[in-house]
User: Fold this.
Amino acid sequence: MNPLGLTALGLRALAAGFGRNARPFKLTLAPTMRCPYSCTFCHGDNPPQCDEAPAEAFAELFARNRFVNWIDLTGGEIFARNDLPSILHAIRSELPHLAVLHFPTSGGADLDLVRSTVHEHRLRSRGRLVVTVSVNGPAALDSQLRNSPDSFERSVLTYLTLSEIPGVDVYFGMTLVPQNIDQVQATFGALSDRVPGLEPRDLHVNFFNRSSHFFGNINCPGLTSEQTKQAATKLLELRRREPLRSPLDLLERWFLRLMPLHLRTGRSPARCVSLRSNLYIAPDLTVYPCTLWNRPLGKLEDYGFEIERLLNSDDARQARQMVEHDRCPGCWTPCEAFPSLLNWRWPATLLRRSLRDKR
Assistant:
């Protein structure tokens, strides 16, 4: 654990409510969009086509932005990149105040590669390492959704393998879509049969969202508001029965608790801090406000790989003002919601939204 990094993350999250400086503490970064599975609800039949910057460019990105405290590596399956160890080395070497590194894995990557890469990083990193292993239903349903006969088994083996590495926080991650919205309990039961001592908190959920530049699933059928509300309510009831063991547990509870308000208004229940506290970077190092708003703001290489320079451009300033004045498309996803919930000003925003909703 990196106590200095955690302290810096906490202070910067609180400070995000003050001033006009845009210096994000969290990056959601996709090294690749390649994936061994073809989930119909994710990339569908039209996965985003995107060049991949070399590992040296990622190293330059980290070296020029040493203030980053939290990184979410996403994609795509990050283990599809042969140079992933070099990217992780750059993260360790260039980000001295990194408090949290999180990444998901599909479970479809080579297990020996996953084990050795995660073990090496854990040995040499001081920050918290969180890994989410994807699963989307009991075995038969998971295979159907991911178009792979052994996807469930491979995810279970990946989870068990990573759980044996000291200092790695491992969870299952489930995306709720029309086909599995009523299968959360069944999925947890199937996982519990294979993983002794598994608790409900070990299964994290996300809700289906559409995105042209990230998911490439604009035409995929989504959840109804009622389906999402009922699922969020049931999950919150389960979470409340468990003791709080980490700040992540608290963030998840608030995320679920505020989901009905988002469904009623179509807006973020908390003050969104995208382009101030967090942003999304595509594999070619193009910056977007988030994973859902398809508004490219430029490539980092054109700004000397310096995030602050790009965010001070006229286009980025305009986009940030739209976010701050609630004129962006509006969403409620963990990547964007969690940094917003760390901002001390979000309760006031919630109160204003609630009062406006009642009128």
Observations:
- The two ends are 47 Å apart (CA to CA).
- The CA atoms of residues 130 and 169 lie 5 Å apart.
- The beta strands are 26-29, 70-73, 100-105, 128-134, 168-176, 203-207, 278-281, 287-288.
- The chain has a mean pLDDT of 88.
